[in-house]
């Protein structure tokens, strides 16, 4: 997500999450003859392609139109156990291959989240693909309940369920009550569709899209949570993929409602890297002359917000929200993203001193995302999928003990990563987590300092899939690399694979750009 966490691989920023589930046979519709396809009416549907522009203010639609894309809605069953019942739609965009003589087929995209829109991504992905783009139909898919697909919205007062636990038991109990309220809102406003918001059903939708496009196989590019979706799809539908690229790789054994647990160290390293950058620009931001001084400034802001909520424009930033600003500031390793976060820390520092502050544009966007209902749909879908994919501990004491155990080591991030959320109050998932297949020849991409999908996850999947290859961006605290970070080494490796279908003979290491 652009400036949200977890979130999507859009333009120059991403976010993250996901698990998978054991394959279950799809029942035939009542009265169907043995061997008939219960999904035939979905597989054989006729797609009506149209303009992607929804109105005069539709920037995404206009960008798609300028790139030559067309859009359509694909009908899928709400409940794959009842394919003759209620239906929903999945919105897709497509820029067709121009080199038809050497056409490979469709490349389906997922930018992460869960809950992130991908329909608008084909133009920038084609740019990253360079010459090889001409050989693919590049297809953006808004997953079920996301973006232009049939919506799911729990009418939340926030765009994110993630919060810091606070400094004491009273703060933790406030977050528990907040999380329980979010779960109840979903039960009230979207209870009829919640059980069907899962990665397994999104994978099933992908296969309907494949069939409706008239293809035997698809290629796939998935970022962050999209890597997990790719793992689940290739497990559930073996033999239906061609070339698979997973960027920001999630270890399927760690995916679930508590996906953030354990990423404190990577985020702390990213914070330290940013602090060194900010210290070198003390004249601009005034946060400290050394890395230690900058880190002390951040810690001072955290403590100030815990004492008294900081006033930033129309918003109040407290001990539960301040850590989320830090999380959102640490996913992209470049001067622009670092500068946005440095300005935000400066704004919070001034507010902690009692000054009247109008938040900078980036910080204003994060605060609106976390503290208003503007992006309720995003948080609703993200949480519904995480809770629907796997069960979370239901006893708040489990989370409280974890927070207390880790707080001293990292008082900024651990109270977020170890904390409880709405999944502690959610209904049990209908399906078991997917047992991911043992091997797949895929191209994996990850930065060593990725603060969202940490590098250990990429290495775990590389070990699980010995036929795969891993492209490592070394020395960058970057989430999502291909086409986003600007590494020619990484981009060329991915494009060579997309062009030839042949994986590198061995794993590849790429150096981070100097000075970033």
TrEMBL record:
The UniProt transmembrane annotation reads none
The record's listing under Gene3D superfamilies reads: alpha/beta hydrolase
Q: What Enzyme Commission number(s) apply to this enzyme?
A: 3.4.14.-
Question: Where in this chain does the record put each Peptidase S33 tripeptidyl aminopeptidase-like C-terminal domain?
Answer: 419-510
MF terms from GO for this chain are: aminopeptidase activity
- InterPro entries given in the database record: AB_hydrolase_fold, Pept_S33_TAP-like_C, Serine_prot/Carboxylest_S33, TAT_signal
- A Pfam family assignment: Abhydrolase_4
EC supergroup of this enzyme: hydrolase
Keywords assigned by UniProt, alphabetized: Aminopeptidase, Hydrolase, Protease, Signal
Signal peptide range in chain numbering? 1-30
Write out the similarity annotation: Belongs to the peptidase S33 family.
Protein name, UniProt field? Tripeptidyl aminopeptidase
Q: Which organism is it from?
A: Streptomyces chartreusis NRRL 3882
């Amino acid at each position: 997500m652009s400036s949200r966490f977890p979130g999507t691989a859009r333009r120059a920023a991403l976010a993250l999450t996901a698990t998978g589930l054991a394959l279950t046979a799809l029942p035939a519709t009542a009265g169907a003859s043995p061997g008939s396809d219960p999904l035939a009416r979905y597989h054989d549907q006729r797609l009506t392609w149209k303009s992607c522009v929804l109105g005069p203010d539709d920037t995404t639609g206009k960008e798609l139109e300028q790139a030559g894309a067309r859009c359509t809605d694909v009908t899928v069953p709400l409940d794959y156990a009842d394919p003759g019942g209620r239906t929903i739609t999945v919105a897709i965009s497509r820029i067709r291959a121009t080199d038809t003589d050497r056409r490979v087929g469709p490349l389906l995209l997922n930018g992460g989240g869960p809950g992130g829109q991908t329909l608008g991504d084909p133009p920038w992905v084609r740019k990253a693909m360079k010459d090889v783009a001409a050989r693919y139909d590049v297809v953006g898919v808004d997953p079920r309940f996301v973006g232009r697909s049939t919506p799911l919205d729990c009418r939340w007062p926030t765009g994110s369920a993630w919060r810091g636990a606070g400094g004491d038991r009273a703060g933790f109990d406030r977050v528990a009550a907040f999380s329980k309220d979010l779960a109840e809102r979903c039960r009230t406003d979207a209870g009829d569709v919640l059980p069907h918001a899962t990665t397994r059903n999104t994978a099933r939708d992908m296969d309907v899209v494949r069939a409706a496009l008239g293809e035997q196989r698809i290629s796939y590019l998935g970022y962050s949570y999209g890597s997990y979706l790719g793992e689940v799809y290739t497990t559930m539908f073996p033999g239906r993929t061609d070339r698979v690229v997973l960027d920001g790789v999630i270890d399927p054994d760690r995916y679930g409602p508590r996906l953030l647990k354990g990423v404190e160290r990577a985020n702390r390293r990213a914070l330290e890297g940013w602090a060194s950058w900010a210290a070198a620009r003390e004249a601009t931001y005034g946060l400290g002359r050394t890395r230690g001084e900058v880190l002390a400034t951040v810690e001072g802001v955290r403590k100030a917000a815990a004492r008294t909520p900081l006033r930033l424009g129309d918003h109040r930033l407290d001990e539960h929200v301040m850590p989320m600003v830090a999380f959102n500031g640490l996913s992209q390793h470049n001067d622009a993203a670092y500068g946005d976060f440095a300005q935000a820390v400066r704004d919070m520092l001034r507010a902690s001193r009692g000054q009247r502050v109008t938040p900078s544009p980036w910080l204003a966007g994060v605060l609106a995302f976390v503290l208003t209902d503007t992006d309720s749909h995003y948080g609703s879908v993200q949480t519904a999928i995480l809770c629907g994919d796997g069960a979370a501990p239901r006893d708040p004491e489990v989370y409280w003990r974890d927070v207390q155990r880790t707080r001293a080591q990292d008082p900024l991030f651990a109270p977020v990563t170890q904390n409880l959320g709405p999944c502690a109050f959610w209904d049990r998932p209908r399906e078991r987590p997917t047992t991911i297949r043992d091997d797949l020849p895929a191209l994996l991409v990850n930065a060593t300092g990725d603060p969202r999908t940490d590098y250990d996850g990429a290495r775990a999947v590389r070990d699980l899939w010995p036929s795969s290859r891993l492209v490592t961006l070394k020395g960058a605290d970057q989430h999502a690399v291909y086409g986003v970070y600007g590494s020619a080494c990484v981009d060329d490796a991915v494009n060579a694979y997309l062009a030839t279908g042949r994986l590198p003979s061995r794993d590849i290491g790429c150096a981070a750009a100097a000075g970033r």
